[in-house]
Design a protein that fits this description.
By secondary structure, the chain is of the alpha+beta class. Helix content is about 30%, strand content about 25%. It has one domain: Nucleoside Triphosphate Pyrophosphohydrolase.
């Protein structure tokens, strides 16, 4: 196993599953990593057809809200993030993506520098079916933060409160987003950290 791939294997192994679905996704991801020489996207949009992604959810712990972008291609409200470049550490991807897509520096004070959540998702981004193995990070920012959004990628962005997320059609978000929020809330409550959004009806 190549050093970069071994590092990803260690990161995925360290994720503590929050529910049975995440446990299943982690097992699938570890099996995939063990069976390939490459986990990175080499050519857009889907070569190889399964590859690694870093998601970065911006959280305002003091107001229990999150910042999402209205993604043009996906047609969804999503966290910042993107594909992990060949040989890149997923955390470095998270740092790079929030800098490039939001114009801020990553503050991992919400849940630490390791990914909090892992998902394996079939997607049709850019018209080519592929599988995203996504590592979800949380970063802190205040609701008054000035973001510099790329108009070529996003129609805009906004803060979402827990009540707004709970009252919205879940298909407006990544299919696993509300599960991420529920896990984030559980982890921060158990650690004694500041409040994060509570969305009811998300399992766990």
């Amino acid at each position: 196993m190549k050093p970069a791939v071994r590092s990803v294997h260690e990161i995925v192994s360290a994720v503590e599953p929050w529910d049975d679905l995440e446990r299943s996704h982690r097992s699938a991801a570890l099996e995939w990593i063990a069976g390939t020489d490459d986990v990175f996207r080499r050519r857009s949009p889907a070569t190889p057809p399964q590859h690694l992604v870093s998601y970065v959810v911006v959280v305002d712990p003091s107001e229990a809200s999150v910042f999402l972008v209205d993604h043009i291609k996906a047609g969804l409200w999503l966290p910042a993030g993107g594909h992990v470049e060949p040989g890149e550490h997923p955390r470095d991807t998270a740092i790079r993506e929030v800098r490039e897509e939001l114009g801020i520096e990553a503050d991992f004070g919400v849940a630490g520098t390791a990914p909090l959540f892992l998902t394996v998702t079939n997607t049709v981004g850019s018209g080519a079916a592929h599988v995203d193995v996504s590592l979800w990070y949380a970063v802190a920012a205040g609701s008054g933060t000035e973001f510099a959004l790329d108009p070529r990628e996003f129609r805009g962005g906004r803060w979402w409160t827990a009540d707004e997320m709970a009252g919205s059609d879940p298909t407006r978000f990544d299919p696993h987003f509300l599960r991420f929020i529920a896990k984030l809330r559980s982890v921060t409550e158990n650690s004694g950290a500041q409040a994060t959004p509570r969305v009811v009806g998300t399992g766990g």
